[in-house]
Specification:
About 40% of the residues are buried. The chain has one domain: P-loop containing nucleotide triphosphate hydrolases (Rossmann fold, 3-Layer(aba) Sandwich). It has a five-stranded parallel beta sheet with strand order 2-3-1-4-5, sandwiched between helices. It is α/β, with parallel strands linked by helices. The chain is about 55% helix and about 15% strand. The longest helix has 25 residues, at about 65-85. Helix 3 (about 65-85) runs parallel beside helix 5 (about 115-125). Bound molecules: thymidine-5'-diphosphate (TYD). Thymidine-5'-diphosphate binds near residues 17, 54, 95 and 100.
Amino acid sequence: MNGKFIVFEGPDGSGKTTILNKVNEILISKGYKTNLLREPGGTFISEKIRDIIIDNENINMDAKTEALLFAASRAQLVSEKIKPLMEAGEIILCDRFVLSSLTYQGVGRGLGIDEIKAINDFATGGLKADLTVFFNIDYKDALIRKRANFTADRLENEEFDFHKKIFDAYLDMAKLYQDEICEIDASKSIDEVSKSALDLILNILED
Ligand code: TYD
């Protein structure tokens, strides 16, 4: 597999989706052909699973059900899109991947990192990103930023301490896996954050 698989990760409201779109436009203007994907979602079946996950009516969803749905959505995305694109040598920019499940379900929901890693290894066949860009911004600033702009869905409505746990988990993972996860300061302006993300990506693409 000689494609490049680049993942954007960070807390809710960290701005990664905005930056992902901006960076994508810049890459296209530089002549790169890219494929944008988002999680949960990215395929017809995965988007249906996404609707179940974020539905505000599913307030009684068990944490294990949620974790398995994220993994199911991901399994479909990997087999239908990511693997074939990688085999074809394409560039993939993906909004969230396994690290989101490790932080949100493993730590946030308290299901355990090892347990979530195991179901995700099964779902993805152990596929790893070539680069994970972590948008480092304090969870409170990020949430406030997001709430000013959007109607909160079920997951975003969780209490601040849930988001604090997730943010701390991101920081821990970024420290633990320094070779795979590159951190950028996401509290800066859109142009500055875009430039930091772009520099990391170009580094990988021009490798
Ligand atoms: P989304 O609405 O795409 O939010 P964002 O633009 O911030 O990424 O994601 C929905 C929510 O799903 C978000 O709160 C993060 C959460 N999530 C998990 O809990 N586990 C996962 O594995 C993934 C991919 C997302």
